[in-house]
Structures are given as C-alpha cells and as structure tokens.
Amino acid sequence: MSAPHGFSVSRYAPERGTLAKLTARDSVLRRLDWPILLSALALSFIGALLVWSATRGRTELNQGDPYYFLFRHVLNTGIGVALMVGTIWLGHRTLRGAVPFLYGLSIVLILAVLTPLGATINGAHAWIVVGGGFSLQPSEFVKITIILVMAMLLASKVDAGDQLHPDHGTVAKALVLAALPMGIVMLMPDLGSVMVMIVIVLGVLLASGASNRWVLGLIGAGIGGAVLVTALGMLDEYQINRFAAFANPDLDPAGVGYNTNQARIAIGSGGLLGSGLFKGSQTTGQFVPEQQTDFVFTVAGEELGFLGAGFILFLLGVILWRACRIARETTELYGTIVAAGIIAWFAFQSFENIGMTLGIMPVAGLPLPFVSYGGSSMFAVWVAIGLLQSIRAQRPMTA
Question: Of 80, 168, 335, 386, which is least packed with CB atoms within 10 Å of its CB?
Fold first, then answer.
C-alpha cells in the first residue's frame, strides 16, 4: 500500500537532527523559514515595548524598578529563542522518540499543581512557584505534548505505509491520551487552557485524515461536557461571572464587566495612529487590569492605534500562513499533524485574546502569543516555532 499525499520515506532529509549532516548547499540558514522567524522576533520586540509601557509606572508590581518587566520579558524571549534552537538541533523526528517521556513529565508537572507545590495567580490555581520570583505554568507545555503524542499515534501506521488514514482504534487511543492531561487541567480549573487544547485536538484530527464522525462527536462531547461542568459546579465563581459579563456587557460594569469595558475604551481611544508609546491615558492611569499579560493588546490599540494593532495582526497572520505552507509541503503525516496542531493553537489563542479585549469573546485568561508577558507561554510558543522550523528543514529542498 502506497503512502498517502505523496509521502515517501526515501525523500526525507537528514535522519537525525536538523543540524546534522547538512551539506553547504543545504545549510541550516537556507532551510529556515525566515518570515516565521522574523515575524516572531518582531512580535516579541513589540511585546517588550508594550509590556514596558504597561508596567513602568506600576510600583506595586515592578518592585520600584521601571525596567523590571522589560528586562524579564527580554530574558524570557532570549530563553525562548535558545529553546527554539535546541528544538531545531534535535529535530522533530528525534523528539518523536522522546514523546512518551515528555508526555509523562507533563502529567507529573500538572499533577504537582494540585499539590501544595501549586500556587494561585490571578484567580487560577495553575502555577508552580520555583523560587526567586519565578513561576511555571505547566499547562502551556501540555499544549505541545498533546500535539506530539497525538501526532505520533495518528501518523505511525500511515507514515509506515500500512494505512491511508488512522483507524478508529488509533484515534480512540489518541483521544484518551489527550483527555487525561486536559481533565487534570480542568480540575485546577484552567478553563482557558482547556479551550485551547480542545481546538488543538480538533485541528489535529482534521489534519490526520480521521473520519469526520470523530470530529463531529468531539464537538458534541465538548458541548455536553461544558453543560455538565457548569451543572456540577466545577467552575469557580469568577469564571461564571466572566461568561455572564460576556453575555451581557452591561451587567455590573464596575465589577465583572470592568475589564472588558476598560479594554474597549482603551482600544477605541487610540484612533488610527494612537496616542504614542508611553502616552496612553488608560495605560498610564492603570485603568485596565493585567495589561502586561492578558490585556496587552489594549496597550497597542491605545498607544499605537489601528495601524499598530493591525501590524500585530499582520505578523500573526504571516506566522499562520507560513505554518500552513509548512504543513502542506511536508513529506510525512507526522509533520503535517504537528504543524496543524500548532496552527490551531496559535490561531485560536490569538483570536480569543484579542477578541476578549474587543468584547466579542469571553475573558479566558489567555496570553497573546509572543507579545504578552509570561515565561511559560513565551517558552512554549518558541518551542513550537522550533518544531515548525524543524519540519521545514527536514523536507527535501528544491534546486
């Protein structure tokens, strides 16, 4: 049985590690997807300026140092880029063999959040404080492991040429492995991360060629699960209030609707060109909560205006466009599924983050990829960029 979509093992690039055994013609620099890399770097740079603007006057947060968050954001970006380089060096195929270990480690980390090691930050008990002012949010890395473990299972027989599409048994196993960490994250509860993971699973299933009945069944199960979770009272009061405020923006504008109302005021006041960096009245007046993290887009809307905020959307669009191209051109289903999972992750999380600042999506506590302040999120998205670069680098190069 021939492999689908023109997949051919004999056409693979280096067997191990993207950086290994490359000739001068097939150099690493030639194989990198530069639009993705430059767009991600530009977003991180813009994010550093926005985070700095949002926090330089917040003495209760920056410990009296106006450069505190700026330095840490740049440091997080640097560590993230290093993780990307390491991911490229290892190669996504080498990491494929380490997926069981990475999956087990992710389970251990998210279980640790439910122990006394866990900490509550901004209403979510989803963190592990590791000392020195540093904290880790394991659910960010679970997004990656869900993509990898599902890709490993769904593509195994297809890439080997034994099947044209994943069989029902394989799909069921993949869904069970994805459901386990999602269930633990739901217990925290970290509803925003679970929403992203559900979209990731849907994207992975669609890319794998699995039967549409699985996709429709998963959507139905998701709706039923949401109803059940609400009926059993598994959501915290602040999460229920967020959805209530989304359904009725005029409900308690000084309370549960305050964040969204102030975010819309900030973005709307920016106009076409914005008030100028560090000159936004809503930002300097500290009217919008969590502006360095979940609501960082409001700083862009107010101080950089429609054009500046639109440029951020353009850069995110470039990353998604190039990632789609990588998914389409790879010669193995495993690479296609990994790229598709990352696309679903970035697309939904960006839409949700920006949408909640505009009032068209409920507040879910999700950062804007590359832009928002946060080490765990920054590390995870740069690892994802490394996976995309590895998939592209290990495909055959045309003359």
Answer: 168
